[in-house]
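BACKBONE STRUCTURE TOKENS:
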Amino acid sequence: MCPFRKCVYNERVHSIRLFLLTLVLVALPAGRAAAADTSADSGTTDRKDLVNAVKRLEKKLGFRRTKNFHKESAESAVAYRCYYTGKLELPDSYEKLQLLQGTKTGCPLDTKKYDVFFYPLEAAGSGKTPVSASLEHESVERFLVVPR
């Protein structure tokens, strides 16, 4: 008999290992199929099949269902972020950077007052994120890293 916290931890570790193993088993055939077939529509179909396979696995493992990747977007980014800090400041960590919503054209900040890093997001774990055009054409390994 084990203490409750340790049992819960062991179950989580087992679930995560099972999830990662299944991802590898799903990614290998998908990667081979993507490499073997170079037609324009095949990549999209392979990605849809891959997303559906991962979503089925997540459901089996008890993950909360989301609407991530249910649709596609012609946009290369799903959102734009502007990280910034004062001129010549170096925060101890990324968590201390300031954050503002940007647009396709950039950040609404005065670059004479702030050091600004403009970041177009290919995906975000919002629960409703579409597959962006740039992410759709990424490697299978990169595609699998993005949360569903």
